[in-house]
Amino acid sequence: MTYVTITDDPVYLTEPLVKTTDMLRNPRPLIPQQLLYPCTGVVEFADQPRGAAPHYLPGANPFLKEFGAEYRLPEAATRGGAATMYPEFQKTLSAR
């Protein structure tokens, strides 16, 4: 069985995000003890108050150029969204 999810978010995504997961039938079902395990909430960042989400305000993220610098890619290629996966995008890079 193939499970498909489609996320359409025009604010953050330039195209719909489609993900698929292939599932197989397990001929030997798991016993309940294998399915259940204790989950406990933990504070992942010691200097943050409970419930806080670490973030950078728009324009304040110091790590945006790190990936492009490491792999010697232009910033347009690393932050261009879905348009970067099409062959026509190469013409955009050569024009710069």
Description:
By secondary structure, the chain is of the alpha+beta class. It is 22% helix and 12% strand. It has helices at 32-35, 66-71, 75-78, 89-95; strands at residues 2-7, 17-22. It is flat and about 60 Å long.
**Strand ordering within the main sheet:** 1-2
Question: Based on helices, strands and strand pairing, what is the structural class?
Answer: alpha+beta
**Which regions contain 5 or more consecutive residues with pLDDT less than 50?**
none
State the separation between the terminal residues, measured CA to CA: 46 Å
- Average pLDDT rating: 85
**Strand-residue proportion:** 5-15%
Q: Given the C-alpha coordinates, what overall shape results? A: flat
Largest sheet: 2 strands, antiparallel
Task: Give the beta-strand count.
Answer: 2
Instruction: Report the radius of gyration as a whole number of Å.
Output: 21 Å
- Helix fraction, binned, reads 10-25%
What sequence of helices (H) and strands (E) makes up the elements? Answer: EEHHHH
DSSP helix count?
4
Write a short abstract of this structure.
This protein is α+β, with helices and mostly antiparallel strands. It is about 20% helix and about 10% strand.
